[in-house]
Write a structure and sequence with these properties.
- By secondary structure, the chain is mainly alpha-helical.
- Among the domains are: about 260 residues, no CATH class; about 45 residues.
- Helices cover about 70% and strands about 0% of the residues.
- It is built from 24 helices and 2 strands.
- Strands 1-2 form a two-stranded antiparallel sheet.
- α4 runs antiparallel to α10, α10 packs antiparallel against α13 and α15 runs parallel beside α18.
Length: about 625
Amino acid sequence: MDVLYYIILLPIVAGIILFLLPERLKAIKALFALIVSIIVLYLGFVVYGYESQTVQLALVPQTAADGSILHELLVGAGQYLTLNIDPLSQLIALFVGGFAVVIAIYSSRSVHQKKKIYHFYPFFLITLGSAIGAVLADNMLLFIFFWGILGFTLYKLIKGQDEKSSAAAKKTLIIIGASDGIMILGIAIIWQLTGTWNMSELDLATSSSLEIWAFITLMIGSFTKAGAFPFHSWIPDFAQHAPASSTAYLPASLDKLLGIYFLTRLCVDIFRVNQWLTLILIILAVLTILTAVMMALIQHNFKRLLSFHAVSQVGYMILGIAIATPLAVAAGLFHMVNHALYKSGLFLSAGSVQDKTGKEDLDDLGGLSSRMPVTFFSALIFALAISGIPPLNGFASKWMIYQSIIDFGHGSGIASQLWIIWLAGAVLGSALTLASFIKFISGIFLGRRKEAFDSLREVNILMWLPKLLLAIVCIGFGVFATNWVVPGLFESYTGPFEFVGVWQSSTVSLLVLIYIVLGILIYLAGNIRNMRKADAYIGGETFYETAGYRVTEYYNTIREMRPLKEIYETAQKGWFDLYVLFKKLFYGLNLLFSKVHTGVMTAYAIWIFAGFIIIMLLLL
């Protein structure tokens, strides 16, 4: 079991060592981080082969007792080092290692660029070790310890080099930190109810108020980490101001894996969720899908557009976990993995575009497909996958979620009776996602290219290779979804299940490939003959060659529609942002209490006496 020590401690210790190296040795740091990430991925495969078990680690051998107080303290602390090795934790740990390798490769090319994060690679490795520690931890105190470190490294992996990025970093730290504090309250309630810290020993029925509050407080932590409504508002600000490597590594992949992992633990392993909590979860899931995708539709900044989709897709995962049938849980977990694949790829693609052009507004771009062909191909695959286009992986997981919703409708609870609403919301969200990514792809890669980009070239191989690998995996996970991927990855945790609908991913993929080949042949046949090409005649004017049509203008109609216009204006003022609302509340209370400080001694005496009376009444 030494592997369990190494897979957690190796990246953390390596990250601490990198702090000692001067920042000018970025290339060495990048190579070191990549090597450590590859080793951790290898160890992830080793752990993936273990049988399910609970492991008690030890800081010191108990047989080597020397009677010292330090030895006794270390032995006592060992009781909290309990790990749970089961198919779910093994799967998440494996993908955490895989994404670390991908991001390490991508970020290694950017070590020569300016305005990078100070000590990026040390925090990168500490994040890797802490994420795996949180996934494998069975003891809740050990779990919250690693979980809290991830909040700090998230804060450090955003630049903070100007006022806006500093504000985004502070907002992220406050929201994540507040949710961690709420989780500690939930853990304390569970200890009070059960007397154990180990998640594998828990089975709570959510039939009492304390059990319900324990579930809600821990659910808030998982929602905040994953970026679900209404605790999502840190993600758009983080994505806009953080480098592509940081965004692809945390909000796009690791945070989604960890947040949904913990929600799965809560709903499947720790609690038996009652029908009303199930209804609340599903309502929040559908709201997450629709509200975030509606915000994405009107974005001009492509990083904010992607960030709102990083929120929207979480709703599908929550839907699957909330329904909690074997098919639904497998669908939610499959969508979690799929989202981490194509969303990290999308952020890396966006980072490549920004690196080459210096732009992040769709109005300033266009026509880059011929200049950046690999980035265009990868981004197109990711965009089609997240939009649920067959035969890609995003369609496969969404199709499973649709099936699980329909099957859920056969139940008797109030949430089951409203199944058609949940299905309609999920399908509508997918359609709006496609509409949004038509804007993304056409705004960046299609249309007229500006003269300033005529000499543009594709990014370095170290930046396009990770995207291409992720795109290939998206295709493979979609093509082999029903035959290999889903049964192989998820049935060991969920148990066996049957697909409700008819979907053979390999057969459909073959048909799609045949149609693509036929389409190419027809296109080539139509271009065999020489045809005269001429621009449209517009009254003798010659501006056609330079005319451009901004794709964002077509989507402004949505912003101006009533009542959407009022809703968007309200959202722009921050009324749907819990961070802004609480900030206004605290500022208001501060202003109110400041009026109490009149400088008159009599007034202070009255307030002291009134406070004393209130405390006495509460004690009685």
